[in-house]
Amino acid sequence: MYFSRPPLRLAGILIGLALTAASLSFPAAPAVGVGPKAAKPTIVLVHGSFADSSGWSKVIERLQRHGYTALAVANPLRGLASDAAYLDSFIDGIEGPVVLVGHSYGGAVITETAPDPDVKALVYVSAFLPEEGETAFGIAGRFPGSQITPETIRTVTLPSGGDDVYLRAETFGKVFGPGVPASVLRLLAATQRPILYTALTEPATAGPAWKRLPSWVVISKTDQAIPAAAQRFMTVRAGARAVEVDASHSAFLTRPGVVADVIEKAAR
């Protein structure tokens, strides 16, 4: 079969149309299910007295597996206002949203922290949620059951004249860690960090952070340091969401899965 070539004029028209079509740009179809994801908050964990930041290790492992950045602060334990100021400085170096988690006295520290638009939520684990004017010792002593007494602590007088407070090794397990293996308790007692006595008697001065931020609480039902009744009282007063666990003051060691789950709820 024979086809004749198109006239030159028709060929020119066809080539021109092809070039015009090639030069046209059409908007790309939108990608389905693709878009910027909101950054997960950084979890900042604050330990309390008679402990250090390594106590959060099991909780941190779980948070990291779920894609969170978790940072455990070396709480100075030198005074409520100064410890809170240190925490504020630590937070200033973090980009993006933050969830603060405090254990025991660390709860008082996150309560005292200055307003920061990046802090989105608070989580208290067997912790203090003080109101302005309250002290850690004052709250614990208001309800029966605390085993932090002159018989269970020892003090070390500092050159400055203040006193550092430790739990006695022979009573550490009774106060801090029922439910923790004896071998672990011996290590915790030997490596505990002391708190300045005046930090436990220093009144909260800032308007409590739980009045302006959503808060979650893990209440330890068999706590021998901060009675469960005290934890419930503070939780109700703060209007916080609560989870009660069968655990002692060391819930972050014995129930790390529960603690991590509550933190993740606060982070969503």
Automatic annotation (TrEMBL):
Positions of the AB hydrolase-1 domain: 43-262
Entry keywords, A to Z: Hydrolase, Signal
Signal sequence, start to end: 1-28
Xref: InterPro entries: AB_hydrolase_1, AB_hydrolase_fold, Sec-Metab_Biosynth_Hydrolase
Pfam families (alphabetical): Abhydrolase_6
UniProt key word Hydrolase: yes
Keyword Metal-binding: no
MF-aspect GO terms: hydrolase activity
Gene3D superfamilies: alpha/beta hydrolase
Origin superkingdom: Bacteria
Protein name: Alpha/beta hydrolase
Source organism of this protein record: Actinocorallia libanotica
